[in-house]
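By way of example, we now present a protein record of this kind:
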Amino acid sequence: MATRIGFTGDVMLGRVVDDRQRRRPVEAVWGTALERLRGLDGLVCNLECVLSNGGTKWRRTHRPFHFRADPDWAVPALERAGVDVCALANNHVLDYEEAALRDTLERLDEAELARAGAGGTIGEALEPAVVSVDGLEVAIVAFTDNTPEYAADESSPGTAWIEIDRENPETRRRVREALERARGTDPDLLVASLHWGPNMVTEPPDSFREFGRWLIEVGVDVVHGHSAHVFQGIEVHEGRPILYDAGDFVDDYAVDPALRNDRSFLFVLQRADDGALLELRLHPTEIEDCAVHEANPDAADRSRERMRELSAPFGTAFERDGAALVLSLEE
């Protein structure tokens, strides 16, 4: 039997999503994707907001957007979808200052939802999230190169911030420290979740490609990228997938008519009992009415075509199975 672990792009539950959810069932935010989410053995998402009703807006530097969701519905919603791990290394975890971040950490911990990439200190931010998924031990570390003013240090809360540069000594030291901690848990699968790069960019720069490959070379099994709000291509390096950007999974953002940031995929990794990575399956999704849905046939077709185009320069080819794209990882 294969173990199936899902990866999503940005999950932003604030603003209009938060307002809608106060007047509809908890699970409504997952729309028609709920059954597929609940059918997975494990699920990892980038949580692009704080879970708090407190805090004050960050004003220390200019921030145009501030994302916050009511934890009384948001935490149960994450639980209903079967989320196991929330990556928190991103540019919104301090949108409502330290109090709201601490609320987020406490509410996730109370719900026993694992987290990585942010904490009360840099030491805590570098700690891996470790979960058992259908008997499989999974460790996730998370980093971001966004918003350096949100970086944690030895005495202040924030994110596991790095420069995306494999030659940068501080980056190498920090990443290796996090990976050593993760390997100390003796995981069967090691994931690096990266909130990297600017918005609305469809291709990773060469520095990201070099960095992603380096992560694989030092022992990471899956690179889970996000931040651009649009999905990017997938590369396979040494038999391991690099998802350069998973796009947006649910939010209230304005939709670019050309880039279609409302469309992406649920990325499902299948791993055999003997440790072999079997395949990565991409299920097309789209956002409508502040909820994520299985993509309609036309949207799914366009997303599949776009993913093929973006991945071709990496030598990545997909098969088709129903609505899904399938990337074989078997050697």
